[in-house]
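Hi,

Apologies if this is the wrong queue. I'm a grad student, and the batch job for Potassium channel domain-containing protein from Romanomermis culicivorax produced an output file that my downstream script rejects. I'm not sure whether the problem is my script or the file. Here is the sequence I used:
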Amino acid sequence: MSSWSHASNFALLIFYLFLGGFIFKALEWQHEVDMRQMLVDTYNNLTITASQDGCIDLKDVKNLVTLTLTAQRYGIREWGDFTMKSQWNYFGSLFFSLVVVSTVGYGNMSPSTIWGRRMCVVYAFFGIPIFLNAVAQFSAEAKQAITRLQDKLARKKPHRRALAAAIMFTLGTFVAFFPNFLFMYCENWSFEEAAYFTFITLTTVGFGDYVAGAQTFYFSTYRFFLILWMLLGLMYVALIIMYVQSIMQYVLRKIASERSTTKVMQVKS
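Support response: The file is valid. Your script probably expects a header line. Output copied below for reference.
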C-alpha cells in the first residue's frame, strides 16, 4: 500500500477525532452546565438554611449527597469549586473521542444525554475500525522503516536484532518512560502511580482509577499533549505486538521445520 494511502488513513482518523470533539461538546456541554447550576443552587440553599435556622433538614442533606454523586458520575468531581471549567469543553470532548475509539474507556466521563449516548454508540461503531486501521498501517510502515534502517546499518543477524532492540528501547523511553515525570509533576503522582497509569492506558485496559487531565483546571496544552501521547503510545504498543507476532511466527516455523527434518531422518533410518 502506498505511503499516500497510509497518510490518508491517518488523516481520516485525525479528522474523525476533531469531528467527535465538536459533536460531543455540542451534545453534552449544556447539560453539564445545567447540572452544575443545580448543584450550586442546592448547595446555596443548604448553607442559607443552616445559617438561618442553625440546623439542616435531613431531606436536604440526602438531596445534596445524591446530586453530588450524580454530578461526579457525569465527570464533575471538584466539590466546592463552582468556577471550574467544563469537562465537556472542546479539548475534553476531543480527549473523550480518542478514549472511545481507542477502546481505553476510562469511565470518568460518559454521555449523560439521550442523544449523547446514541451518538457515542454510532461514533464508536465507525470510529473503532478507523482507529484500528490507522494504527495497524502506521505500525506496519514504522516496521518497514526499521527494516530499511537495518538493511543500511546492519547486515548480520545479531547486529540487526541489536539495532531493532535499540530502536524499540529508544522509542519506548520517549513514549512510556519520560512522560511519567510530566504526570508526576502535573498530577502530583508518585512515579509508580504514573507508570501504572501509563501501562493501563497504553494496553487499553483503562480501569479509570487514575486518569491524567481529569481535573478541569488543566490548561488545554496539557490535554492536547495527552491526546498526542496516547496516539503515539498506542501505535508504539501496536508496533511491539507486531514484532512479537513476527518472533512467534519465526519460532513456530523453526519448530515445524525441525519436526519435519526429524521425521525425514526417522523415515530414512
